[in-house]
Specification:
Blueprint (H helix, E strand, L loop, with lengths): L4 H12 L7 E13 L5 H4 L13 E5 L2 E5 L7 H8 L4 E11 L6 E2 L8 H5 L2 H7 L6 E7 L39 E2 L15 H11 L15 E7 L6 E2 H13 L4 E4 L10 H12 L3 E5 L17 E7 L22 E6 L1 E4 L5 E5 L1 H18 L5 H10 L22 H6 L6 E8 L4 E7 L12 E5 L9 E3 L9 E6 L4 E7 L24 E7 L1
Parallel strand pairs: 6-8, 6-10, 7-8, 10-11, 11-12, 12-13
Antiparallel strand pairs: 1-3, 1-4, 2-3, 4-9, 5-15, 14-15, 16-17, 17-20, 18-21, 19-20, 21-22
Helix pairs in contact: 6-9, 7-8, 9-10
Length: 532
């Protein structure tokens, strides 16, 4: 049994590091996340009956479908993880990941540009003339706290009607007592409000999504029917993967249709607990937006999670000549799904006033807000149809960003196009064969209907038109954040052609792939290439 000086010093480390602008994910020294195999229970696990767990004083809490084991601070979790992973009833076990630093992806900006230029850029006013929505849509904003009584926000928070305020009873039986308006997963209570230094980031993002309409005050969000579920997962305690799991599970189980997270999840994205959190919400039918990142980096770690919709930032300040240029800080790459104004954005402040902030943190709630408006206008839509409208309604900004062509997603969001124009068919942005690893890459634009989509719709032929059976093998699966279909090419050296049968690649509205890229559904996409 190993005693851990690091474990004793850990709390001091996490509380003094949050001011840092750089961040990293470390393993919690005394906390373990355990996932059991289907049909197993914690009673069967009975850890105390096995080897190093004998007579060990530990606590176990059931969290979001998983178990959180808390060991005494003088022990190291790493000593027990291998034993857990070797058990027949354990699916996986890992240390609870903890973010050290500041994961928020924004930078304060000069508040003199006190105008919401982004609404003009994305044609919000024109969209509202068409429709302001008819059904309530709940967007779960996951952040550091919210100014609950802000003059422009007090009426926009989702209210849990199944809960009686202040009676200290879990009236709706969802496992949370008095969760009238959101929850604080960081400090473990029903107050997601501002506390100490927390709340600036969350208050700003909430205002971007849904600041009140027609109240004669301040700013506006993206639609009067949009409600914010205020979920606080970052605050006075360390930010852990277990907190993210609880937060996403709560959102998915309590009525949210959309989650927007404006945090650096690159380190977390490699951890099973984070992947489980995203998968839980995704499999429940939610759209999960996340900021693409502020590192001016290509293909950050989070792009590997294709259940996320990653949002890059574009310029949106007073100088209209710079509108739609990629923000210099914004991440980019083939894994980015869409771009949105984020530099700067004028929105609500925890002081009760208004302020400009910049970052992909601001871009993500803008994209989430437009998605919520689409859903409010069309409450019968599936999430795939909502995303199809969002993606194919976006404006092409590649010409303005030639150095980042195809690396800012489907374009910059356009609210009017997304709710009023006909939905364009999915198409192919580009395709290429990489001989080094023998892979075929097809870069899509738009959303496919995963239910009808079949990999067999791509045919490999020789230069003589002969069908090559078994010549293509799919490498990756298709999810809503999958931008590139990848295939392993198994063929002898020679010249080949692939053909994409348009009817095998339909969008969520049933329109076939625009294979020949003429602006209308139908037509085959073809690519000639050489295997050396």
């Amino acid at each position: 049994m190993k005693f851990s000086l690091f474990g004793l010093l850990f709390l001091g480390l996490i509380t003094t590091s949050f001011a840092s602008t750089e961040g990293r994910v470390v393993d919690h020294p005394t906390e373990i996340i355990v996932a059991l195999k289907k049909g197993e229970s914690f009673d069967k696990l009975n850890l105390s009956a096995y080897n190093s767990f004998k007579e060990l004083d530990f606590t176990a809490e059931h969290r979001g479908g998983l178990y959180l084991l808390k060991l005494p601070q003088v022990l190291e979790a790493s000593e027990y993880i291998e034993e857990l992973n070797n058990r027949s009833d354990v699916l996986w076990a890992e240390a609870n990941p903890v973010f050290i630093g500041n994961p928020m992806e924004f930078a304060p900006n000069d508040p003199e540009y006190a105008k919401q230029h982004h609404h003009k850029i994305i044609q919000s006013e024109k969209a509202w003339d068409y429709s302001m929505g008819e059904a309530e849509v709940i967007v779960a904003v996951t952040d550091d706290g919210y100014k609950m009584d802000h003059e422009d926000l007090a009426g926009i928070y989702h209210i849990n009607k199944g809960e009686i305020p202040g009676n200290n009873i879990d009236d709706d039986g969802n496992g949370y007592v008095d969760d009238v308006s959101g929850w604080n997963f960081n400090e473990g209570n029903n107050n997601p409000g501002v506390k100490g230094w927390n709340g600036s980031h969350g208050t700003h993002c909430a205002g971007i999504v849904a600041a009140d309409f027609d109240n004669g005050k301040g700013v506006v969000g993206h639609g009067p029917k949009i409600k914010v579920m205020p979920l606080k997962f970052y605050g006075s305690k360390s930010w852990t993967g277990e907190m993210i799991m609880e937060t996403y599970k709560y959102a998915a189980d309590n009525g949210a249709k959309i989650i927007t997270t404006s945090y650096n999840v690159d380190g977390m994205s490699k951890k099973k607990i984070y992947q489980e959190a995203v998968a839980y919400a995704y499999n429940k039918g939610l759209i999960i937006f996340n900021s693409a990142g502020n590192g001016n980096a290509e293909q950050s770690a989070r792009t590997k999670n294709t259940q996320l919709i990653l949002v890059a930032s574009t310029q949106s300040g007073a100088d209209s000549s710079k509108h739609d240029l990629r923000s210099k800080f914004s991440n980019y790459g083939y894994g980015v799904d869409i771009a949105a104004p984020g530099n700067p954005i004028y929105s609500t402040s925890k002081s009760g006033k208004y302020v400009d902030m910049s970052g992909t943190s601001m871009a993500a709630p803008n994209a989430a807000g437009v998605a919520a408006l689409i859903w409010s206008v069309n409450p019968e839509y599936t999430r795939e149809q909502v995303l199809a409208r969002l993606m194919r309604g976006a404006d092409d900004i590649d010409t303005l960003n030639s150095s980042f062509k195809h690396k800012l997603g489907n374009g910059r969001i356009n609210s009017f196009n997304s709710i009023a124009e006909d939905v364009k068919a999915p198409t192919v942005r580009q395709a290429w064969y990489a001989d080094g690893n023998k892979t075929l890459n097809i870069h899509l634009q738009g959303i496919l209907d995963a239910k009808s989509f079949t990999r067999g719709g791509i045919i490999l032929e020789s230069d003589k038109g002969e069908l090559i059976e078994g010549g293509l093998k799919a490498i990756n699966k298709y999810e809503l954040g999958t931008n590139i279909l990848r295939y392993q090419v198994n063929a002898e050296p020679g010249n080949y052609r692939i053909r994409m049968i348009s009817r095998a690649f339909k969008g969520p509205f049933g329109n076939e792939l625009d294979g020949d890229r003429d602006g209308t559904p139908g037509g085959e996409f073809m690519l000639d290439f050489e295997v050396e």
